[in-house]
C-alpha cells in the first residue's frame, strides 16, 4: 500500500530546498525506484540551478545602489514643421524682425508717457536649458511696447486660429500683464507708433494685480449696423490660476478659436476655460430683440402693494397698549442670608492717598472701590429687589392685521418695444484680420520672460512646436528638480507626446517583481513534485 499525504505549498529557503532534494534522492525505492531516482536527480539539479540564480540576484539586490546620473537636456531650437503665420524662438539672440515703439502714451504725465521700457533677448536667470533664449521685459514701472509683422495676415474664414506662447515670471509678479495683442490689419498700421490705442483684434494672456489673477481673452467685435467696435470679454475661468503666476516656472498659454464659434483656453496643454463666442462673452455679441420703452412711465395710481392693512379691523376694547413688557415676579422670595445693610462695594482699606495729591486741584481723595469681602459668602448684598419676568398681559401697540390687496396690480415694468439697434451676428468668429503680434505692457515687476510665439491654423503643427519648445523646457526643469526619478536626459523630441518616465520605471519594477514570484513558484512546484515521487512512486 502506498503512502498518501496531502500536498501543501511551502516557502523553502535555499538550504532547506537543497537538503530536501538530497534526502529525496537517497530515499526513493521500490519497483519504480530507478525511474523515480533519475527524475529526482534531474529535478534536483534544476532546483539547485534556480536557487543559485536566486542567491546571485539576492546578492546583487543587497549591493548599495549607485546614485543615478544627473540627467541633462540638450537644447535645440524649435523649427516650425507646417503651415504657420508667425514663429519666433529668439534663438538668434537679437530682436531682428521686431520693432520697438517710439510713441508716447496719451493722457498721462510726460515723465512716464514714453514707451521706454527696456527689452533684452537673453537666457533665463536660472536657466535649466543653456542656449535657450527669450524676450525679457527688463524695466519696472515703465511702459513697454514691441511688435512684429506676421509672415502674412491671418484671415478668419474656414480654418481655426491657434495662438500660443510661453511666459515665466522669473521674479514673481506684483502688478502687471504678460498678454499679447494681435494687431488688426489696417492701412495706417505703423509698428513704431504702437500704443495702447492701436487697434487690435484679440488680446490674450495672463494679467495680475494684487490677488486678482486674470487670464484675458478679449476680442473687438464690429457692429454690423454702425461699424463701431466693442470689446467682448470671455467669462472668467473656474480654475485656480494662482500657481501659474507664483511658481516661477515656464508656462505655455494657448488660445484656440474655431469657425463654429467655440473657443478653448489652455495652460500647459490643459483646458482651463472654454465656451462659445455667442453665449459666453460679456457683453453678449448680439443685443436683445426687444428693449424697455424709455418713454413709458408708471401710472400714478398703479398699486404695487401685495398686502394692505385690513381697513375693517378694529382694536379690541381690552387691548392695553400701555401694559409694560416686564413686571416684577410676585412669587420671588428673598434668599436666606441676604445682607441688606452691606454695600456691594467698599473703599479699599489698604489704599493710601498719594503724596502728590492736591485736594485744591484734585478734590477730596477717596479710596478706590473694591468688592465687599463680606458679600463673597452671601447670596447678595444691598437692597433686595424682585427679579422681573415677561408680562403675560403684554400686547404692545395694536396694528390692524394684513390682508391681500384687492387692487394689487403687480410690479410695474415698462412695456417692450422693438430694439432699434438690434442685429444678429451668427458668425462672430469672422473677426477683423490681423497682421502683427505685439506686447504693450506696464508692469511693476521686471524680468518677465517670453518665448516661442506661434500663430497657425493647424493644431497639430502647434502641438509639434510646443513639444519642441516648451516640452524641452519642461523636461529640463523636471530633470533639475528630481534627477533621481526621471530620465530627462533621454528626452527625445517626437511628433507624439512624451511618455511619463516615472510611470515607465514603475511598470518595469512591477514586471521584475512578477518574474521573481514566477521563478519562486517554479521552485515550489519542483520540490512538491519530488515529495510526490517519494511518497507515491507508483
TrEMBL record:
Its main location: endoplasmic reticulum. One of its GO terms (molecular function) is calcium ion binding. One of its GO terms (cellular component) is melanosome membrane. Residues 478-489 have a biased composition (Low complexity). Disulfide bonds join 175-209. It is a single-pass type I membrane protein. It is found in: Endoplasmic reticulum membrane; Melanosome membrane; Mitochondrion membrane. The keyword Transit peptide does not apply. Residues 295-334 have a biased composition (Basic and acidic residues). The keyword Membrane applies. Keywords: Acetylation, Calcium, Chaperone, Disulfide bond, Endoplasmic reticulum, Lectin, Lipoprotein, Membrane, Metal-binding, Mitochondrion, Palmitate, Phosphoprotein, Repeat, Signal, Transmembrane, Transmembrane helix, Ubl conjugation. It holds the Pfam family Calreticulin. GO terms for biological process: ERAD pathway; protein folding. Calcium-binding protein that interacts with newly synthesized monoglucosylated glycoproteins in the endoplasmic reticulum. It may act in assisting protein assembly and/or in the retention within the ER of unassembled protein subunits. It seems to play a major role in the quality control apparatus of the ER by the retention of incorrectly folded proteins. Associated with partial T-cell antigen receptor complexes that escape the ER of immature thymocytes, it may function as a signaling complex regulating thymocyte maturation. Belongs to the calreticulin family. This is Calnexin. It comes from Sinocyclocheilus rhinocerous.
